[in-house]
Amino acid sequence: APLAGPLAEKASILAASGPSNVEFNIAYSSNRTEGLPTTLILATGGTIAGSSASNLDSTTYQAGVVGVGQLIQAVPELLHVSNIDGMQVSNIASESMPDSVVLKLTKLANKALCTPNATYDGVVITHGTDTLEETAFTLDVTLQCDKPVVVVGAMRPSTAISADGPNNLLQAVTTASHPASRNRGALIVLNDRVCQAYYCEKTQANAVDTFDSPEPGYSGALLSDKLFYYSSAAQPTFKQTFDLSNVTALPDVDILYGYQGTDFGLLNATIADGAKGTGAGSIPAAALHDIDAAAAKGIPLVRSTKINVGAAVPGDVNYDSMIAGGLLNPVKSRRLLQILLALNKTNDEIRNAFEGKLKSYLSYKPGSS
Ligand SMILES: NC(=O)C[C@H](N)C(=O)O
């Protein structure tokens, strides 16, 4: 049925924000202070822009209500740190974030930061937290220069007692406009921590202390309003970057979740429905026949672990028709597979992009160079 009411309005915002339209449509521009860096805020919605009639409500509010100008003006301290422009890219809960808007975000960020006459020093993306790691990962592997993109959200809506959005936004702009943030790819900043987008995940559904990358750890932190990093700039070992400037759409890739009693009829259904690739974890033996058949048709299948921490390791003979996602969780594996398919990579190139570097570590022989 056609959408009605507020949802119809949101759907029309999304329709207007297709990837071919990557002009800066600046809704808010601060007075310029000479000598300060300049940050572009790309607002997409989420709880950071959420609102509720009750200041006690942190769970059943409406996400994606407050506009970018209001978000910025609620934190005048931002203007002591950076000159600010703000653009409203969408205003939705992140569980409704379409691939087209994520593709648009990466194009806007690259245009703002990486073109020869780029005037911005950093980009901040305000985003719902439920799928924030997917957008942040996509930005991380598609950014074409060493300037920072910082993705930020909030766990409490703007109307809540002790809303976390304003301070998170200030910390995000502080991070995006700081020279020490260069050459670190995309970063996620919430709750006084700076986390590398490649590894960072949402780990708690409700609490403000939720984004973490438990094994690699945080890159930096904010003490009051001051940023520091634990180490000099470094990129994740397994990260590769890709140029999406000529890509107009990301292909369909579905995720199938493995559990006791998994119905792998879904695998065939999703392929029949046009999926160009799928992801899964360790696989029930009963599904292997269908998996091998799908792989034989040339459909790349990536298996990645649903456990937050750890790796799907290449070289497992039980699953040799599948590609191992390594350290990437299912949603990040999906994004990487979409990007590789959008760039028309062959299945061997896709396998190599997922497995190559981890395999070279696993095949290391002491004494070899
Ligand atoms: N805290 C949040 O932002 C959750 C919200 N459902 C969203 O992702 O948009």
UniProtKB/TrEMBL annotation:
InterPro entries xrefs: AsnASE_II (IPR004550), Asp/glu_Ase-like_sf (IPR036152), Asparaginase/glutaminase-like (IPR006034), Asparaginase/glutaminase_AS1 (IPR020827), Asparaginase/glutaminase_AS2 (IPR027475), Asparaginase_C (IPR040919), L-asparaginase_C (IPR027473), L-asparaginase_N (IPR027474)
Assigned EC number: 3.5.1.1
Q: What class of enzyme is it?
A: hydrolase
Q: Where in the numbering of this chain does the Asparaginase/glutaminase C-terminal domain appear? A: 252-354
Alphabetized UniProt keyword annotations:
Hydrolase, Signal
Q: Which residue range or ranges hold the L-asparaginase N-terminal domain? A: 40-232
| A GO BP annotation | L-asparagine catabolic process
Which residues are recorded as binding substrate?
94, 129-130
Task: Tell me yes or no: is Cell membrane among this UniProt entry's keywords.
Answer: no
Which Pfam family, just one, is annotated for this protein? Answer: Asparaginase_C
Q: Which residues form the active site?
A: 47 (o-isoaspartyl threonine intermediate), 47, 129
Stated family: Belongs to the asparaginase 1 family.
- Superkingdom assignment: Eukaryota
User: What is the name of the protein in this document?
Assistant: asparaginase
- Read off the CDD domains from this record: L-asparaginase_II
Kindly state which reaction or reactions the protein catalyses.
Answer: L-asparagine + H2O = L-aspartate + NH4(+)
Alphabetically, the GO molecular function entries are: asparaginase activity
